[in-house]
Write a structure and sequence with these properties.
Layout lengths: L5 H16 L6 H9 L10 H8 L2 E6 L2 E7 L5 H10 L3 E4 L5 E2 L3 E8 L4 E7 L3 H22 L7 H14 L1 H14 L6 E2 L12 E5 L4 E2 L3 H6 L4 H19 L1 E3 L7 E5 L6 E5 L5 E3 L2 H16 L2 H10 L6 H9 L3 H6 L8 H11 L3 H10 L2 H20 L5 H21 L4 H29 L1 H16 L2
Parallel strand pairs: 7-12
Antiparallel strand pairs: 1-2, 3-5, 4-5, 5-6, 6-8, 9-11, 10-13, 11-12
Helix pairs in contact: 1-2, 1-6, 1-14, 1-16, 5-6, 9-16, 9-17, 10-11, 10-17, 11-12, 17-18, 18-19
Length: 467
């Protein structure tokens, strides 16, 4: 089968899934752009949201604090009244948002007690409009399917219906943030903004203010002495832990939601994870199949690749599925995806062949478990970050994935065995497997270091001197 990959799918899957699953104020015109456009068309450019963005916005303060944004002409009498109300809660409140998206926008503010906070406020009428927007989307997709019977993207509507209510509930986002912070507390490089519950509602979220450069900004990292390879490794560790070990996955890691900053005190680079509205919870059976599939992909074990791809709904399209997951050609998958990084020619080949396989790709997306859809999107976003940092397909990323898969499978196996002997056996096998990975990682480090070159030269000299 010719090479097909997710990097080639970025104009299809990435745009479709990322925008459709993060649906808000979606009119029929914008739906078409989401499905087929190469550039992101912000739905805020339409209707009431467009008006709200075109003029200055401010917050309406009620009993439960800020309940929504309200479009008020800048400089009007009503604007001045509302601004004076804000001063009761804030020492300062910046009218210009730090960032704006389809559902909400974020303002920087300082509370009366001196704490600097980020105030995420939902756009007006988003809640009321969402059901109408999904209906419009559903009707449009049904019309497209009537014209093009091979069109298999009705799952977009199902995912929007499931995920949008969760994203509209900012208290749910706050709970997700706290859960992932606790879950990954052992990673001292990860920072998740603290939630101020006493000042938050379903439509307004107050968080600790954190700032930094975007994770794909190499120039920012160079200016601040941040090692791009370290950032890439740590980001891979975070997501491998979320996907394979915990089954609780932050599914919107675009560069605006992943910041980096060097701590002045320790000199360590921190990864700041923002926007916790969209998470995927993986079932145990799905997670185990996914772990074993990646283990097979890393080892280039084609029989197991076929077995676990089929178990995940790929059927006879398992070669295409493997290419989509790895963003590599089928030849590279057979050879071993950790053997060599993606070449420019392979990347071009993947992109050019993706369009030819669009019917099969749509069939796959329709057949795989719904849990897979957000993972494909997440993989695509992470791969985009790696490409921007020039760290794509590094050996360390596969080693970290292997560690997490081994730990996850071993934990699962121990949970299913009551025999102490069998549990001990599983733990010993796990320890040996992890030790092998550590040894291989040490070998790679020595191979690429000056010390390693010196040791090789010394051994070579000793060998020749004894003969």
């Amino acid at each position: 089968m010719a090479a097909v990959g997710l990097s080639g799918l970025s104009q299809g899957l990435s745009v479709m899934a990322r925008r459709a699953l993060k649906l808000a104020s979606l009119a029929a015109a914008t739906t078409g752009v989401y499905l087929y456009g190469n550039e992101f068309l912000d739905p805020n450019d339409f209707g009431v949201v467009r008006v709200g963005r075109a003029i200055a916005t401010t917050a309406v303060i009620t009993y439960d604090y800020l309940t929504s944004l309200r479009s008020v002409p800048y400089g009007s009498e009503e604007y001045d009244v509302l601004k004076s109300q804000i001063k009761e809660l804030f020492a300062s409140f910046e009218d210009t948002p730090l960032g704006a998206a389809s559902l909400a926008q974020v303002h920087k503010a300082v509370l009366q007690d001196g704490r600097t906070v980020a105030v995420k406020v939902q756009h007006p009428k988003v809640q009321a409009q969402s059901s109408k927007d999904i209906l419009l989307m559903e009707v449009l997709l049904l019309v497209v399917k009537q014209i093009f019977p091979d069109f298999e993207f009705m799952w977009l509507v199902e995912e929007a219906k499931k995920n949008l209510p969760l994203e509209l509930d900012f208290l749910n986002e706050g709970r997700n943030a706290e859960k992932v912070a606790h879950m990954l507390k052992d990673f001292d490089f990860l920072k998740v903004p603290r939630i101020y519950w006493e000042l938050s509602t379903r439509r307004v979220l107050l968080m600790e203010f954190m700032e930094g450069g975007q994770v794909n900004d190499r120039a920012y990292m160079k200016r601040n002495g941040i090692d791009v390879n370290e950032i890439s490794r740590n980001l891979g560790k975070l997501y491998s832990e979320m996907i394979f070990v915990n089954g609780f996955v932050h599914c919107d890691p675009h560069p605006g939601n992943v910041l980096v900053k060097k701590c002045p005190a320790s000199g360590k680079a921190h990864i700041i994870l923002l926007d916790h509205g969209l998470y995927q919870v993986l079932s145990e059976s799905f997670r185990m199949d996914y772990c074993r599939l990646w283990q097979a992909l890393i080892k280039a074990d084609m029989k197991r690749v076929q077995k676990y791809s089929r178990r995940l709904g790929a059927g006879d399209l398992y070669p295409l599925f493997a290419c989509m997951l790895t963003a590599r050609s089928w030849e590279s998958v057979n050879r071993g995806i950790d053997r060599s990084p993606v070449s420019a020619s392979e990347d071009v080949e993947i992109r050019s062949n993706a369009a030819a396989y669009l019917p099969q790709i749509t069939q796959l997306l329709n057949n795989v478990p719904r849990q897979m859809l957000l993972l494909l999107k997440t993989n695509d976003l992470l791969r985009g970050i790696e490409s921007a940092l020039h760290t794509r397909a590094s050996a360390s990323s596969f080693l970290n994935m292997s560690r997490c898969c081994i730990r996850a499978v071993s934990t699962y196996q121990r949970s299913k065995n009551r025999s102490l002997y069998r549990r001990a056996q599983i733990s010993l096998t796990e320890a040996l497997s992890l030790w092998q990975i550590n040894l291989y990682e040490l070998f790679l480090w020595l191979k690429g270091s000056r010390l390693g070159n010196w040791v090789v030269a010394l051994l070579s000299w000793m060998h020749h001197s004894t003969h």
